[in-house]
Amino acid sequence: MKKLRRSARLVDMTQYLLAHPHTLIPLTLFSEEYGSAKSSISEDLSIIKEAFESQGVGVLKTVAGAAGGVKYIPQVNQEHSKSFMATLIEQLAKPERVLPGGYLYMSDILGHPTTLAQIGKLFASAFADQDVEVVMTVETKGIPLAYATAAYLNVPVVIVRRDNKVTEGSVVSINYVSGSSKRIQTMSLARRALPEQSRVLIVDDFMKAGGTVRGMIDLLQEFRATVVGCGVMVETADVSERLVDEYISLAKLNEVDIKEKHIQIELGSYFQ
């Protein structure tokens, strides 16, 4: 049992809540931890709730009853989201990012912890009410985004492989058509990696026609899983046929002039 002044107790409780998102925490846990009455703990949580909402950190949901408690739901308000994405889009629009084929170089962004955390929180906010049980992505660039998102949803990550690994045991493999190149490719997932009938959120870094995401959706059917959402960091606008209908994007790539090194990019469907 910790004997702390109220100010220290508020800090300690806040840190605990931030470290355990989407987890129902009984009031008795805090009451016993600090040797305080539940009424005092409730007052503390009201203060934290107000601070979270005013600062755009998230919300605290109270669940009544004997088995109730409080749950921290990470959320980002529109103002903070647009401000962050405006800065990110400015970085993405730099001429030196243009790669052959109209792609953008994004490895530095996908390797920056603070940026990844913010992107993960945006995706977690968008799908906070979907009862996500697993975050899925395909190797390799989508992996850091998936882990960043899963951290705020407090769920595991499942990685779809493009080739089989002996260390993963038996796998389920399917062939899918790459949306941009129309090539037949293969993806696989270990049978032990995903419980059947899981509720899955798909996260990826870049989407053209959506062939890879479509492949993951088809692969999930083999596990009788439910796709509760799909989030991509950047989508391209110049696609004649999209293989995925329901998804959100944080940014939309409208035009890439390879010769002039000009990139036109705007906010994605997340903000619409």
TrEMBL record:
<dbReference type="InterPro" id="IPR050118">
    <property type="entry name" value="Pur/Pyrimidine_PRTase"/>
</dbReference>
<dbReference type="GO" id="GO:0003677">
    <property type="term" value="F:DNA binding"/>
</dbReference>
<keyword id="KW-0804">Transcription</keyword>
<dbReference type="InterPro" id="IPR015265">
    <property type="entry name" value="PuR_N"/>
</dbReference>
<dbReference type="InterPro" id="IPR029057">
    <property type="entry name" value="PRTase-like"/>
</dbReference>
<dbReference type="Pfam" id="PF00156">
    <property type="entry name" value="Pribosyltran"/>
</dbReference>
<feature type="domain" description="Bacterial purine repressor N-terminal">
    <location>
        <begin position="5"/>
        <end position="74"/>
    </location>
</feature>
<dbReference type="InterPro" id="IPR036388">
    <property type="entry name" value="WH-like_DNA-bd_sf"/>
</dbReference>
<dbReference type="InterPro" id="IPR000836">
    <property type="entry name" value="PRTase_dom"/>
</dbReference>
<dbReference type="Pfam" id="PF09182">
    <property type="entry name" value="PuR_N"/>
</dbReference>
<keyword id="KW-0238">DNA-binding</keyword>
<comment type="similarity">
    <text>Belongs to the purine/pyrimidine phosphoribosyltransferase family. PurR subfamily.</text>
</comment>
<protein>
    <submittedName>
        <fullName>Pur operon repressor</fullName>
    </submittedName>
</protein>
<keyword id="KW-0805">Transcription regulation</keyword>
<dbReference type="GO" id="GO:0045892">
    <property type="term" value="P:negative regulation of DNA-templated transcription"/>
</dbReference>
<dbReference type="GO" id="GO:0045982">
    <property type="term" value="P:negative regulation of purine nucleobase metabolic process"/>
</dbReference>
<comment type="subunit">
    <text>Homodimer.</text>
</comment>
<dbReference type="InterPro" id="IPR010078">
    <property type="entry name" value="PurR_Bsub"/>
</dbReference>
<dbReference type="InterPro" id="IPR036390">
    <property type="entry name" value="WH_DNA-bd_sf"/>
</dbReference>
<feature type="domain" description="Phosphoribosyltransferase">
    <location>
        <begin position="108"/>
        <end position="266"/>
    </location>
</feature>
